[in-house]
């Protein structure tokens, strides 16, 4: 990061209480109305910034083996943390700011420094965080393996009359039993026509025989996310559901096949979307069809840049990790989303989890539930 700051002529980068703070320093801190973060200087020095009454806690967390040890700058309740940060910069130096930090942090700093000295730190952060190390890929692999097994268990556990809230509780317990950090914080369970809503319905619906089931959930392993979706039928699929499911599976496969080192992220979205348009969906984001991007980056945040979406020309590079989920929505009827993740190697893409085997046998067990 220091080399990037020097190359851009920026004096420092301020990290807010975001996943980037954890990524660069090891400090995992909750967001609040009080600024706690880290100032990375162009010469490589790191300074933590926090309220005076939090100094002891920050000192304890940053003394851990996996954290960056550095000086801690404190501000009292009647003082400005933004003036404190501004005072640590070289005279006239520009400050890059974590693009995921709250707007009030940017506004407070701009009042101290002037907008002309403020720089979007997002491009520098994304360039480093988007390329995962082997250790990060190992953590992501474990998280996704846990969630895939939880998805399999949930399918076999379903019964007529069960409520979506009960399924969520089951998934949470199973995630924890397998060593994840729980799934209740992120668990979308949809039955019937609620599946045509990409983020699900609002009610606590009961499962009925022959309902389409869509479950989108994940967990955390040492801060790294899983995010897997499976769609199947609790009962007998109609011919229409079967056909849409097969179209979804093919769109996902084509997006994966389009992934090559150096190609633009948007080309994967185009591969899925062009196929779907060719078989009668859309075009573009129109329904019936694919209403959202084909995929997103993933790591310490569940949704990270870059994205597999039109307009994102970021070239694929080794270590980048993405979801692949070109959902199909049939308005008022049902939706099908199959979501797995892959990471890029010099030789091309590698699945973290194998895609759904078939509508009748989604987990490749050789039996029908």
From TrEMBL:
Give start and end of each Peptidase M24 domain. 139-346
Alphabetized, the UniProt keywords read: Dipeptidase, Hydrolase, Metal-binding, Metalloprotease, Protease
Q: Name one GO molecular function term.
A: proline dipeptidase activity
Q: List, for all copies, the residue spans of the domain called Creatinase N-terminal.
A: 5-130
* Enzyme Commission number(s) of this protein: 3.4.13.9
Query: Sorted alphabetically, which SUPFAM superfamilies does this protein's record hold?
Result: Creatinase/aminopeptidase, Creatinase/prolidase N-terminal domain
Return the Gene3D superfamilies for the record: Creatinase/methionine aminopeptidase superfamily, Creatinase/prolidase N-terminal domain
According to the UniProt record, what class of enzyme is this?
A: hydrolase
User: Pfam families given for it?
Assistant: Creatinase_N, Peptidase_M24
Name under which the protein is recorded: Xaa-Pro dipeptidase
């Amino acid at each position: 990061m220091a080399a990037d700051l020097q190359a851009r002529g920026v004096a420092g980068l301020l990290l807010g209480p975001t996943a980037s703070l954890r990524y660069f320093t090891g400090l995992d801190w909750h967001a609040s109305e009080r600024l706690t973060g880290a100032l990375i200087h162009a010469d490589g020095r790191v300074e933590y910034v926090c309220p005076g009454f939090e100094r002891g806690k920050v000192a304890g967390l940053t003394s851990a083996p996996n954290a960056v040890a550095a000086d801690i700058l404190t501000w009292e309740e009647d003082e400005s943390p933004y003036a404190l940060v501004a005072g640590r910069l070289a005279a006239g130096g520009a400050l890059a700011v974590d693009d995921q930090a709250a707007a009030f942090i940017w506004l407070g700093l701009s009042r101290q420094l002037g907008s002309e000295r403020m720089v979007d730190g997002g491009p520098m952060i994304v360039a480093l965080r988007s390329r995962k190390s082997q250790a990060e890929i190992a953590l992501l692999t474990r998280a996704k393996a846990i969630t895939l097994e939880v998805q399999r268990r949930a399918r076999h556990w379903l019964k007529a009359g069960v409520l979506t809230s009960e399924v969520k509780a089951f998934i949470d317990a199973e995630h924890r039993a397998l060593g994840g950090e729980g799934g209740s914080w992120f668990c979308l369970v949809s039955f019937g026509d609620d599946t045509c809503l990409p983020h699900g319905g609002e009610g606590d619906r009961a499962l009925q025989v022959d309902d389409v089931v869509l479950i989108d959930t994940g967990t955390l392993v040492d801060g790294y996310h899983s995010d897997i979706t499976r769609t199947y039928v609790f009962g007998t699929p109609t011919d229409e559901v079967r056909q849409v499911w097969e179209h979804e599976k093919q769109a996902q496969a084509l997006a994966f096949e389009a992934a090559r080192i150096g190609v633009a992220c948007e080309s994967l979205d185009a591969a899925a979307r062009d196929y779907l348009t060719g078989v009668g969906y859309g075009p573009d984001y129109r329904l019936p069809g694919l209403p959202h991007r084909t995929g997103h980056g993933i790591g310490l945040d569940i949704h990270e840049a870059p994205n597999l979406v039109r307009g994102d020309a970021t070239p694929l590079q080794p270590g980048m990790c993405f979801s692949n989920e070109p959902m199909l929505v049939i308005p008022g009827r049902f939706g099908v989303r199959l979501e797995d993740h892959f990471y890029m190697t010099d030789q091309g893409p590698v699945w973290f989890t194998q895609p759904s085997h078939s509508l009748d046998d989604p987990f490749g067990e050789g039996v029908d539930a």
